[in-house]
Specification:
Domain Methylated-DNA-[protein]-cysteine S-methyltransferase DNA binding: 105-182
Cofactor: Zn(2+)
Shape: globular
Strand content: 15-25%
Number of helices: 6
InterPro entries: MethylDNA_cys_MeTrfase_AS (IPR001497), MethylDNA_cys_MeTrfase_DNA-bd (IPR014048), MethylDNA_cys_MeTrfase_DNAb (IPR036217), MethylG_MeTrfase_N (IPR008332), MGMT_N_sf (IPR036631), WH-like_DNA-bd_sf (IPR036388)
Distance between the termini: 47 Å
Helix content: 25-40%
Protein name: Methylated-DNA--protein-cysteine methyltransferase
Catalytic activity: a 4-O-methyl-thymidine in DNA + L-cysteinyl-[protein] = a thymidine in DNA + S-methyl-L-cysteinyl-[protein]; a 6-O-methyl-2'-deoxyguanosine in DNA + L-cysteinyl-[protein] = S-methyl-L-cysteinyl-[protein] + a 2'-deoxyguanosine in DNA
CATH topology of the largest domain: Arc Repressor Mutant, subunit A
Protein backbone atom coordinates (compact mmCIF):
# COMPACT_ATOMS: atom_id res chain seq x y z
CA UNK A 1 0.00 0.00 0.00
CA UNK A 2 1.31 3.42 -0.95
CA UNK A 3 -0.19 6.64 0.35
CA UNK A 4 -1.10 9.10 -2.33
CA UNK A 5 -0.88 12.85 -1.88
CA UNK A 6 -4.65 13.42 -1.94
CA UNK A 7 -5.67 13.06 1.68
CA UNK A 8 -3.18 10.28 2.29
CA UNK A 9 -5.56 7.53 1.21
CA UNK A 10 -3.81 4.41 -0.03
CA UNK A 11 -3.81 3.64 -3.76
CA UNK A 12 -5.91 0.81 -5.07
CA UNK A 13 -3.04 -1.19 -6.51
CA UNK A 14 -3.53 -3.62 -9.34
CA UNK A 15 -1.05 -6.30 -10.36
CA UNK A 16 -0.34 -7.58 -13.84
CA UNK A 17 1.99 -10.33 -14.98
CA UNK A 18 3.55 -10.02 -18.42
CA UNK A 19 5.05 -13.11 -20.00
CA UNK A 20 8.22 -11.91 -21.76
CA UNK A 21 11.37 -13.36 -23.32
CA UNK A 22 12.92 -12.95 -19.83
CA UNK A 23 10.10 -14.85 -18.12
CA UNK A 24 7.31 -13.42 -15.98
CA UNK A 25 7.54 -9.69 -15.29
CA UNK A 26 5.33 -8.49 -12.41
CA UNK A 27 3.96 -4.95 -12.71
CA UNK A 28 2.05 -3.10 -10.01
CA UNK A 29 0.37 0.26 -10.14
CA UNK A 30 -2.76 2.31 -9.60
CA UNK A 31 -4.85 4.89 -11.47
CA UNK A 32 -2.10 7.47 -10.73
CA UNK A 33 0.77 5.50 -12.22
CA UNK A 34 3.08 2.49 -12.21
CA UNK A 35 4.55 1.65 -8.80
CA UNK A 36 6.96 -1.11 -9.67
CA UNK A 37 8.23 -3.50 -12.32
CA UNK A 38 9.72 -6.70 -10.91
CA UNK A 39 11.94 -8.67 -13.25
CA UNK A 40 12.56 -12.37 -12.63
CA UNK A 41 15.95 -12.87 -10.98
CA UNK A 42 18.13 -15.18 -13.03
CA UNK A 43 21.64 -16.47 -12.84
CA UNK A 44 21.26 -18.10 -16.26
CA UNK A 45 19.01 -16.86 -19.04
CA UNK A 46 16.44 -19.15 -20.60
CA UNK A 47 17.62 -20.49 -23.95
CA UNK A 48 16.10 -18.99 -27.05
CA UNK A 49 15.40 -15.58 -25.49
CA UNK A 50 14.50 -14.06 -28.83
CA UNK A 51 12.93 -10.65 -29.35
CA UNK A 52 10.24 -12.32 -31.44
CA UNK A 53 9.15 -14.42 -28.46
CA UNK A 54 5.55 -13.79 -27.48
CA UNK A 55 4.99 -11.01 -24.99
CA UNK A 56 1.53 -11.22 -23.49
CA UNK A 57 -0.26 -10.30 -20.28
CA UNK A 58 -0.95 -13.63 -18.62
CA UNK A 59 -2.47 -12.46 -15.30
CA UNK A 60 -4.47 -9.39 -14.28
CA UNK A 61 -5.61 -8.27 -17.75
CA UNK A 62 -9.10 -7.36 -16.54
CA UNK A 63 -9.72 -3.85 -15.18
CA UNK A 64 -6.22 -2.59 -15.82
CA UNK A 65 -5.80 1.11 -14.97
CA UNK A 66 -4.47 3.20 -17.88
CA UNK A 67 -0.87 3.46 -16.53
CA UNK A 68 -0.65 -0.36 -16.41
CA UNK A 69 -2.10 -0.63 -19.93
CA UNK A 70 0.53 1.85 -21.15
CA UNK A 71 3.27 0.02 -19.24
CA UNK A 72 2.41 -3.40 -20.68
CA UNK A 73 2.08 -1.92 -24.20
CA UNK A 74 5.47 -0.23 -23.80
CA UNK A 75 7.16 -3.41 -22.53
CA UNK A 76 5.55 -5.53 -25.27
CA UNK A 77 6.90 -3.07 -27.86
CA UNK A 78 10.34 -3.06 -26.17
CA UNK A 79 10.66 -6.83 -26.55
CA UNK A 80 8.83 -7.39 -29.85
CA UNK A 81 9.17 -4.21 -31.94
CA UNK A 82 11.64 -1.94 -30.13
CA UNK A 83 11.72 0.76 -32.80
CA UNK A 84 8.10 1.61 -31.87
CA UNK A 85 8.81 2.45 -28.20
CA UNK A 86 9.73 6.01 -29.12
CA UNK A 87 6.21 6.68 -30.37
CA UNK A 88 4.50 5.22 -27.30
CA UNK A 89 3.69 7.25 -24.19
CA UNK A 90 5.84 6.46 -21.16
CA UNK A 91 3.36 5.55 -18.41
CA UNK A 92 2.98 7.80 -15.37
CA UNK A 93 4.98 6.64 -12.35
CA UNK A 94 3.54 6.63 -8.83
CA UNK A 95 6.33 5.12 -6.73
CA UNK A 96 7.16 7.26 -3.63
CA UNK A 97 10.84 7.40 -4.69
CA UNK A 98 9.82 9.14 -7.91
CA UNK A 99 7.45 11.55 -6.16
CA UNK A 100 9.91 13.36 -3.91
CA UNK A 101 12.73 15.56 -5.05
CA UNK A 102 16.08 13.83 -4.60
CA UNK A 103 19.34 13.12 -6.40
CA UNK A 104 18.10 9.56 -7.02
CA UNK A 105 15.00 10.89 -8.77
CA UNK A 106 17.15 13.34 -10.76
CA UNK A 107 19.43 10.50 -11.87
CA UNK A 108 16.52 8.24 -12.86
CA UNK A 109 14.79 10.99 -14.88
CA UNK A 110 18.08 11.92 -16.56
CA UNK A 111 18.62 8.27 -17.49
CA UNK A 112 15.06 7.96 -18.84
CA UNK A 113 15.32 11.12 -20.95
CA UNK A 114 18.95 11.20 -22.07
CA UNK A 115 20.20 7.62 -22.57
CA UNK A 116 18.51 6.23 -25.66
CA UNK A 117 17.77 2.70 -26.83
CA UNK A 118 20.95 0.84 -27.73
CA UNK A 119 23.23 3.30 -25.90
CA UNK A 120 25.19 2.76 -22.71
CA UNK A 121 26.58 5.26 -20.23
CA UNK A 122 29.04 4.86 -17.36
CA UNK A 123 28.06 5.60 -13.76
CA UNK A 124 30.44 8.55 -13.89
CA UNK A 125 28.97 9.90 -17.16
CA UNK A 126 25.44 9.60 -15.75
CA UNK A 127 26.48 11.44 -12.58
CA UNK A 128 27.81 14.24 -14.79
CA UNK A 129 24.59 14.32 -16.88
CA UNK A 130 22.54 14.50 -13.66
CA UNK A 131 24.52 17.51 -12.48
CA UNK A 132 27.09 16.10 -10.04
CA UNK A 133 30.14 14.60 -11.75
CA UNK A 134 31.58 13.35 -8.43
CA UNK A 135 28.52 11.28 -7.54
CA UNK A 136 29.21 8.05 -9.46
CA UNK A 137 28.68 5.96 -6.29
CA UNK A 138 25.36 7.70 -5.62
CA UNK A 139 24.37 6.86 -9.20
CA UNK A 140 25.05 3.20 -8.36
CA UNK A 141 22.72 3.53 -5.38
CA UNK A 142 20.07 5.13 -7.57
CA UNK A 143 20.32 2.21 -10.02
CA UNK A 144 19.87 -0.28 -7.17
CA UNK A 145 16.72 1.48 -5.99
CA UNK A 146 15.14 1.95 -9.46
CA UNK A 147 11.54 0.71 -9.09
CA UNK A 148 10.83 0.80 -12.87
CA UNK A 149 13.60 -1.20 -14.62
CA UNK A 150 13.66 -1.44 -18.43
CA UNK A 151 11.45 1.67 -18.87
CA UNK A 152 13.90 3.61 -16.69
CA UNK A 153 16.82 1.81 -18.33
CA UNK A 154 19.26 1.17 -15.47
CA UNK A 155 20.61 -1.77 -17.52
CA UNK A 156 22.22 0.84 -19.82
CA UNK A 157 24.50 2.05 -17.02
CA UNK A 158 27.83 0.23 -17.11
CA UNK A 159 31.25 0.54 -15.52
CA UNK A 160 33.84 2.91 -17.00
CA UNK A 161 35.92 -0.17 -17.87
CA UNK A 162 33.16 -1.31 -20.23
CA UNK A 163 32.22 -4.18 -17.91
CA UNK A 164 28.42 -4.46 -17.58
CA UNK A 165 28.46 -4.30 -13.77
CA UNK A 166 25.78 -5.50 -11.39
CA UNK A 167 22.03 -5.69 -11.98
CA UNK A 168 19.14 -6.38 -9.62
CA UNK A 169 17.71 -9.17 -11.75
CA UNK A 170 21.16 -10.69 -12.25
CA UNK A 171 24.00 -10.01 -14.66
CA UNK A 172 22.71 -12.39 -17.37
CA UNK A 173 19.48 -10.35 -17.58
CA UNK A 174 21.45 -7.09 -17.91
CA UNK A 175 23.65 -8.58 -20.61
CA UNK A 176 20.61 -9.96 -22.44
CA UNK A 177 18.92 -6.52 -22.39
CA UNK A 178 22.09 -4.81 -23.65
CA UNK A 179 22.60 -7.33 -26.46
CA UNK A 180 18.86 -7.24 -27.36
CA UNK A 181 19.13 -3.46 -27.82
CA UNK A 182 22.41 -3.70 -29.74
CA UNK A 183 21.00 -6.33 -32.13
CA UNK A 184 17.77 -4.40 -32.67
CA UNK A 185 19.67 -1.16 -33.28
CA UNK A 186 21.92 -2.91 -35.83
CA UNK A 187 18.84 -4.33 -37.62
CA UNK A 188 17.37 -0.83 -37.90
CA UNK A 189 20.65 0.61 -39.18
CA UNK A 190 20.69 -1.78 -42.15
Amino acid sequence: QVNSKQGGSPCKQKHVVLLSPLGKIEISGCEMGVHEIKLPKMSVLPTGAESSAACEVCEGAEEMPEPLQQCTAWLRAYFCEPDSTGSLPVPAFHHPLLQRDSFTRQVLWTLLNDVKFGEAVSYKQLAHLAGNSRAARAVGGAMRSNPIPIIIPCHRVIRSSGDSGNYGAGQPVKEWLLSHEKLQKEKLAR
